[in-house]
Write a structure and sequence with these properties.
The complex is a heterodimer of chains A (107) and B (122).
Chain A: E1 4-7, E2 10-13, E3 19-25, E4 33-38, E5 45-49, E6 53-54, E7 62-67, E8 70-75, E9 85-92, E10 95-98, E11 102-106
Parallel strand pairs in A: 2-11
Antiparallel strand pairs in A: 1-3, 3-8, 4-5, 4-9, 5-6, 7-8, 9-10, 9-11
Chain B: E1 3-7, E2 11-12, E3 18-25, E4 35-41, E5 48-54, E6 59-61, E7 69-74, E8 79-84, E9 93-100, E10 116-120
Parallel strand pairs in B: 2-10
Antiparallel strand pairs in B: 1-3, 3-8, 4-5, 4-9, 5-6, 7-8, 9-10
Classes of the chains: A mainly beta (107), B mainly beta (122).
């Protein structure tokens, strides 16, 4: 099973700042890496698929990058509604796993 | 517009079988490339993938739960049913289903249902 490790566990920033979230895989996941946002009490929402493709309706301030085992989700300028938990997800060898999440909180 | 909604019991007893139904609209599970996935999230914890069924009937299960899970689909009713046997209090979680769009080589999910909280207790 491929393990995804997200860092940091908690990120404290202010609106307008840049957020950089990391997801590291225990082995290569090629380009099969997605990111989700989960606001409190809500279902997850797809942000990014296949490393760097924004899902429909996702603002341009969200971007994804990386390859192999190291991936990054960047939020260029935080809006109040961006404070939430973020998960990365991979699919490899017909198995799907998620990271443990990064909580983005208001500083 | 694609929507999905989970339904089923909110409380089950230990050792019972949980049966959840995902009823969806806006797509057909007979369309090449699509699928429906199931996930769960214990209170305050991370997401966990459970199972995935594809348009062609192919099914994939989480290795850790494979022996307890069964997925079926009813294309005419736009439903996917998940069964999880031998429920235990550690299976208490919010259960989600989600749409797997046509993609090549990858599995990602959009959108998700609202989720349903299932509590396991005697």
């Amino acid at each position: 099973e491929i393990v995804l490790t997200q860092s940091p566990a908690t990120l404290s920033l202010s609106p307008g700042e840049r957020a950089t979230l990391s997801c590291r895989a225990s082995q290569s996941v090629s380009s099969y890496l997605a990111w989700y946002q989960q606001r409190f009490g809500q279902a997850p929402r797809l942000l990014i698929y296949d490393v760097s493709n924004r899902a429909t309706g996702i603002p341009a301030r969200f971007s994804g990058s990386g390859s192999g085992t190291d991936f990054t989700l960047t939020i260029s300028s935080l809006e109040p509604e961006d404070f939430a938990v973020y998960y990365c997800q991979q699919r490899s060898n017909w198995q799907i796993t998620f990271g443990q999440g990064t909580r983005l909180e208001i500083k | 517009q694609i929507t999905l909604k989970e339904s089923g019991p909110t409380l089950v007893k230990p050792t019972q079988t949980l049966t959840l139904t995902c009823t969806f609209s806006g797509f057909s599970l007979s369309t090449v490339g699509v699928g429906v996935g199931w996930f769960r999230q214990p209170p305050g914890k991370a997401l966990e993938w459970l199972a995935l069924i594809y348009w062609d009937g192919d099914k994939r299960y989480s290795p850790s739960l494979n022996s307890r899970l069964t997925l079926t689909k009813d294309t005419s009713k736009n439903q996917v049913v998940l069964a999880l046997t031998n429920m235990d209090p550690v299976d208490t979680a919010t259960y989600y289903c989600a749409h797997r769009p046509l993609s090549f080589g990858s599995d990602w999910f959009d959108p998700w249902g609202q989720g349903t909280l299932v509590t396991v207790s005697s």
